[in-house]
Amino acid sequence: MVGCGIDAGSRAMKVALVDVENRRLVAAGHADQHPDQKALAAKLVAEALEVARLRPADVARTVSTGYGRRLIATADASVTEISCQARGVASLVPDVRTVIDIGGQDSKIIFLDERGVRDFAMNDRCAAGTGQFIEMAARRLGFSLEEMGRAAAGSRRPAVITSMCAVFAETEIVSVLAAGEAPEDVAAGVLRSVAQRVAALGVRGLSVPVVFTGGTARIVGMDKILSGAVGQSLTVPPEPHLTAALGAGLLACEMGPAA
Question: Which of 95, 145, 202, 240 is surrounded by the fewest CB atoms within 10 Å?
Fold first, then answer.
């Protein structure tokens, strides 16, 4: 039997199947979001079950999380992303005290103690400190997200991106490129700008270990840039974009089988 976690995020849908007995991840999947979130979730769950050689009847419970969690009608319960992120990360780094998550449309810092979530701070009103901003900048620079990280790593003089609004920042990027700034320097400036905005959420309250999650954590070199902004070393899980789905799957396991 497995617990199923579905993270219906703003940018992507993630699914995790967790073995009820040993609490280990047995299969996972993810895909870009789609207007029909129920259909996308069903497709990803079916694919994960096939990989794990399991049947739908082997799913004990399903927990949904993320922006679209209430749209997943097949879920037995919906839980906030804060709780699921904390649960998923703690299963990988048991002594974690701070989680920094940079998602598609929000960034958050979760503060934990030995009992669980103690507090959190979130930026969900402006795209300038999120993965969406990085994606916009990458498109403007002609980079994929993978290329964005590699280009930034080759920068010798990161450009200064000062705009606090993503819309104005895009105009600023066009201006600095027109002024002769190298694309790699602009890429580095964008990533540094995001890191600084995230750090401003609560850098003074960080306790170690600090774990960096979210799709943005998969960008090459972003962990080093964010580490410099917050003044702490960071741990990045092997699949940082799946931690909320993993946490939802663990919570599904803890609910026990359906009556």
Answer: 95
